[in-house]
Amino acid sequence: MISIIVPVAPGDDSWRVLLQELSVQSAEGRFTGCEVLFVSADKSEVTAIQQKITTYPPSFGQQCQAHCAGNSRATAMNAGTRLAEGDYLWFVHADSRIETRHIHSLRNSLRVCPDALHYFNLRFYGHPMMWLNALGVWLRSHCLVTPFGDQALCISRQNFLRVGAYPEDVKYGEDHTFVWHALQQGVRLRCTGTALLTSARKYEKNGWLKTTGLHVYLWARQAWPEFKVLLKQRWHKV
For a FRET experiment, which of 34, 158, 187, 230 has its CA 20 to 30 Å from that of 164? Predict the structure, then answer.
């Protein structure tokens, strides 16, 4: 079973579109062997999700849950893994768009390399300059082997526990740090080969240039010490 874990920030209602899209997959028979867990620290948001789930057919509603847990994205995702029943944990952001091709390509990728950390390429809807960011994401993921959480990471439960879960003590980039920890544990990365569509809302809100520059700076600042750890490990193995 694949457990889809969706952290929901307080006041973020983008989960509504995601839930609707997943219900379409269920109606088309594409959702067999999956469950969805929405996890949020906001009780009112959890209640809203639970109420919305009841409006869908019971066959789909039985595959969906909403839980109040955590106080950050990292703690919410870790809580979701404890509640999940699946052998594979698929971490999906609430503003992602999941279609049949994504589920199909992920299953194919899991079949080919079940022990890898799987991720998607990324496309953005919204700001006209986001094609440049999509290119940057591809280069960062494929050439610098550091996909981010908005690329819908998927990993086996066994490897998730071996890596040590999402770090809850970092100020930012818990997903980025998790990927580095996975690499340091010898977990291989694998792209599903399919592009996932996600929102460019923070770029529109805070400015494209400012947001892009900040992300590059924070990525480099966080990546360097983790890269040195990985390099040291590989050096000692030689």
Answer: 34
